[in-house]
Amino acid sequence: MSDALSSPPWPRRALHELVAEQADRTPDRVAVRCGDRSLTYRDLAAAGRRAAARLAARGVGPGHTVAVMVDRSVELPVALLAVLASGAAFVPVDPGYPRERQAHMLADSGATTTLTVGRLAGRAGTADVVVLDAPDEDEATAAAADALPAVASGDLAYIMYTSGSTGRPKGVAVDHGCLVKGVLTMGAAVRLEPGDVWLSVTSASFDPVLIELFLPLVHGSTIVIASEQQVLDGEALHEVLAASGASVLQATPLTWRMLLDAGWAGGLRVGLCGGETLAPSLAAQLAARCGQVWNIYGPTETTVWSTAHLVTGDERDTVPVGRPLPDTTVRVLDAERRAVAAGESGEVWIGGGGVTRGYHGRPELTDECFVADPFGPPGARLYRTGDLGRLREDGALELLGRADHQVKIRGHRVELGEIENWLQEHPSVAGAAVVPQPDGEEQRLVAYVRPGREHLFDEAGLRAHAALRLPRHMVPGTFVRVDVWPRTPSGKIDRRALPVPAAPSAEAAAPAATAWDDELTAALAGIWQDVLGAAPDGVEANFFGLGGHSLQVMQMVKRIKAAFGVRMNAARLMQAPTLGEQAALLRAAVMTTGTPDPVPAAER
């Protein structure tokens, strides 16, 4: 399968060097904004170089890894550029991840230094901590700034952790050559212009953020970084999209739906959609609102995106993920690793300049998933994606699901085995199976648990145990007790035979007003029932424990505004998931605004 998208050859230099060159050309242009703070290209280059010198003065350089724990702020691109310029490799560590997950990432990557900001310095898990927004202008730093090392294309640039089937996340090791290729080849689709404004909404621990932060910076465009609260709140994201003058946005289908739900009417020059399946109905809505929409696909192991499809809005059954980006090959092979004919299904393998080193410290797994390309030139390699697909007659790739138990949940790649292994470490669990179930156009995770002998099925305890290690998107929304596993003829758990969680009966789902202490809590319980299809059984009921997810939090925000006339912050609601906590937040908002009693449902 040959390249379908063409672009001029990109320079064989490190990404931070390309950004520095752009800063020399447009020093006074705004490079990045977040809230009321901004950095020009001159400011960005200077801040990155100072931070790189501070790292170098501490002995950090080639062969080292540095944890980057920075939230959504103007310091995020500074931190990433600083680590690259120091010659070390960065390891993004989400400050919201459970402590145990952070500790594993630090230990596995060998990071002994954390680059962070003052507001997060207390969460750093390494002994050595460099705080970006703290002064440090000593002679050693000044001397180090004049002696930063040159980096080669094959030097390690970063380690990005993804979900792992063994119960621990695995780190994908990416060198500078792959990073440059991964970022610059997206220019074949986006074709950025200096006047473009790119709104960044992706988490720093999710590799598409590298496109958002670096592609604009090598083209002289401006990045606007949305805050965490704005990313989680469709109405707030709609507002920042309009206020920023953004012309480009990359997001998962979930985020695009949040925007549409908030009343976004369009106006972007380019929209990029990736991370999970793009439904034809959503594709049509986006195509009607953007100058161009691209459906994009690629695993972390091949450096962000590998294919792109220009959406027409006329796609019916499926939306293809398109043809390969430059310096990328896509092959669909059968079980014997032979190419299948156009239209036939097989497993998707990806080759080209974006194929990474493999898994950090996992040579056996690397050898299993990264193999020599029997169809390519000497030295070429292929990565086995685990995705099933087929090539259309026009060469575009269509995805058909997974060949294993890996799924995409709200844009994040999830190994179901990692969740299962962690649940089985709970003393009450004799066995666990996690299965994705349809939830509208999304998927939710359902955990089937067989309690051990003389142990009770404790859903609240299992949910708390899951949250100790797993990020929110990996915590199952529903837990189901199983006393006897259904089996396949080979003796494995028959996942298809596991019972679909029953929807609550109308009687059980109806909120009883007499059960609540006040009308506000009763009204909020009714909103929960409308959104989730299940009524809370008390003020300790957990929104996510009843199967809720972030898109439904946005629905809550809209329902609360309609009922009470106050606007709640989606991020605050997610941080206060019980009915009692949300009722307290709502009560405080109502008292502050002086809003009258809730509007009866019949009058809304």
Structure description:
This protein has three domains: 376 residues, 3-Layer(aba) Sandwich (Rossmann fold); 92 residues, GMP Synthetase, Chain A, domain 3 (2-Layer Sandwich), CATH 3.30.300.30; 98 residues, ACP-like (Non-ribosomal Peptide Synthetase Peptidyl Carrier Protein, Chain A, Orthogonal Bundle), CATH 1.10.1200.10. Helices cover 31% and strands 23% of the residues. The protein has a nine-stranded mixed β-sheet with strand order 2-1-10-9-11-12-13-14-15. Helix 15 links the parallel strand 25 and strand 26. Helix 1 packs across helix 2, helix 2 crosses helix 3 and helix 2 packs across helix 5. The termini are far apart.
Summarize this structure as a short list of keywords or feature phrases.
604 residues, 3 domains, GMP Synthetase, Chain A, domain 3, Non-ribosomal Peptide Synthetase Peptidyl Carrier Protein, Chain A, Rossmann fold, alpha/beta, five-stranded antiparallel beta sheet, 20 helices, 23% strand
Strand order of the largest sheet: 2-1-10-9-11-12-13-14-15
Main beta sheet: 9 strands, mixed
Report mean pLDDT, rounded to a whole number: 86
The H-level CATH homologous superfamily of the largest domain, spelled out, is ANL, N-terminal domain
Overall geometry comes to globular
Distance linking N and C termini? 55 Å
Number of helices: 20
User: How many strands in all?
Assistant: 26
For the record, the CATH architecture of the largest domain stands as: 3-Layer(aba) Sandwich
Number of domains: 3
Fraction of residues in β-strands: 15-25%
CATH topology of the largest domain: Rossmann fold
Evaluate the radius of gyration: 25 Å
Helix share bin: 25-40%
Uncertain stretches: 504-514, 596-604
- Using the coordinates above, name the CATH class of the largest domain: Alpha Beta
Class from helix and strand fractions: alpha/beta
